């Protein structure tokens, strides 16, 4: 998947070695960048909302995938990891409401938050989980 330079710059240092998870991470980064680019171009709100809905679905599906792996292999850090996911979901609900009202500054701040959260989560929690899963999966 080609990820255009934008809000979130994808790199190999984000890989977990679990192909399904890595593919989902790339998809999330791509959608985040696409939404950011469309906002910068002044795309109609309906188009932005549709992209946000796709991003939100990708994130929720991804969290289900990760949490399924963690439960399957009895990952010790599961509860903390899931709490981090839940915190982003809460913030995403607020961002969704801001998109509905068209509050541009708040939406942009929300996208920055998601970018920062994603970067930190990938480099810390997902890295630890990825090492654990790679060992369990023999990768």
Can you give a write-up of this model?
This protein is mainly α. The chain has a single domain, classed as Up-down Bundle (Four Helix Bundle (Hemerythrin (Met), subunit A)). The protein contains five helices and no strands. Helix 2 packs antiparallel against helix 3, helix 3 runs antiparallel to helix 4 and helix 4 packs across helix 5. The longest helix has 28 residues. The model has no long low-confidence stretch (mean pLDDT 91).
Topology of helices and strands:
Elements: H1 19-41, H2 45-72, H3 78-101, H4 104-123, H5 125-137
Task: Name the CATH superfamily classification.
Answer: Hemerythrin-like
Order of helices and strands: HHHHH
Please outline the major beta sheet: none
Note the beta-strand portion: under 5%
Number of DSSP E strands: 0
Mean pLDDT, to the nearest integer, reads 91
What is the tally of helical segments? 5
Low-confidence stretches: none
- Multimeric state: single chain
CATH architectural group = Up-down Bundle
State the end-to-end distance. 22 Å
- By CATH reckoning, the class would read Mainly Alpha
| Structural class assignment | mainly alpha
Helical fraction equals: over 70%
Kindly provide the radius of gyration, computed on alpha-carbon positions and rounded to a whole number of angstroms.
15 Å
Count of discrete structural domains: 1
What is the approximate shape? elongated
- Output the CATH topology: Four Helix Bundle (Hemerythrin (Met), subunit A)
